[in-house]
Amino acid sequence: MSSPLLLTLPSGRTLCYRILGAASSPPIFFLHGNLNSRLFAPSWGGTADDVAAASAKVIFVDRPGVGGSSPHPARSYLSFSEDLQSLAAHLELPEFSVVGYSSGGPHALACSRLPGCRSVGLVSADAQYSDMGGDLMQRMFGRPAAEEIDEVYLQGRSEHSAAEMKAGYESMKKQDRAELALEDLAAATAQGYAGPASDGLLESRPWGFPLASPVPLRIWHGGADDDVPVEAGRYLAKHCLGLDVAGPSEEPHVAAGGKYFEVETENHTLIRRRWKAILDETLAAAAAP
């Protein structure tokens, strides 16, 4: 694994990232899920090959308090978008796309209004649960109301989830994949659990920006997702694209602003099998007039 790349932000904080793909290829910022990091490998050992096959350049970014990125207390989705804008300027990228997976989804959507953003992809993304009722809040956070959810509580949940994930990775039959997953988890928790917990804190409250995307949007969700339920994908389809989705379809649901892909048999690891297709769709959306 190559050494991490670091940017010192105007605030003095550090932003850590890695890059796959040719320097001249169209750039996509990739925003990882909760308890993941810049080392997340969407299609395992084939991640870099898929990036090359898509003729893309993908910049994987650690969020504040994760991996090598400095903590940012009381951060917001919009403050992270400012960090990403600084990184785009540092890398001399006048135009780019952003793809967010799981907890990275809301972060990616917040970046849709950045100058230079050409398209956004949301993969198995979390929704604005505070707008979806107490039953779903209870399902996602173990408590029905945002007032009952704080950083200390979420750090405990993150630590428990990380322990379960570690045990699962250690029992994987494919050793190469286990090593990738364990390395990613170690980076995600290198600074403790405040960084991962902040994802949950943001998800449990109003997001602070309009959900309709001003750039072409692609949304993917699995109908069998037990981690981020399909209701989240349908919520995003409705509030970002104006689509009322009642069930899966072999063809994407299409709106003027983008597409919603709901795959009935897919779960939260949808990205593992569709990484190349996600890159292709994201770049095609960015290239559209």
How would you describe this structure to a colleague?
Residues 26-110 form the AB hydrolase-1 domain. Pfam families: Abhydrolase_1 (PF00561). It comes from Tetraparma gracilis. InterPro entries: AB_hydrolase (IPR050471), AB_hydrolase_1 (IPR000073), AB_hydrolase_fold (IPR029058). This is AB hydrolase-1 domain-containing protein. The chain is α/β, with parallel strands linked by helices. It has a single domain (5-287), classed as Alpha/Beta hydrolase fold, catalytic domain (Rossmann fold, 3-Layer(aba) Sandwich). It is 38% helix and 17% strand. The protein has helices spanning 47-53, 77-90, 104-110, 134-141, 151-170, 175-188, 194-203, 230-241, 270-287, and strands at residues 5-8, 14-21, 27-31, 57-61, 96-101, 117-123, 217-222, 253-255, 258-263. A nine-stranded mixed β-sheet has the order 1-2-4-3-5-6-7-9-8, sandwiched between helices. Helix 1 links the parallel strand 3 (27-31) and strand 4 (57-61). The longest helix is centred in the middle third of the chain and has 20 residues, at 151-170. The radius of gyration is 17 Å and the shape is globular. The mean pLDDT is 97.
What topology emerges from the helices and strands here?
Elements: E1 5-8, E2 14-21, E3 27-31, H1 47-53, E4 57-61, H2 77-90, E5 96-101, H3 104-110, E6 117-123, H4 134-141, H5 151-170, H6 175-188, H7 194-203, E7 217-222, H8 230-241, E8 253-255, E9 258-263, H9 270-287
Parallel strand pairs: 3-4, 3-5, 5-6, 6-7, 7-9
Antiparallel strand pairs: 1-2, 2-4, 8-9
Pfam families: Abhydrolase_1 (PF00561)
InterPro entries: AB_hydrolase, AB_hydrolase_1, AB_hydrolase_fold
Domain AB hydrolase-1: 26-110
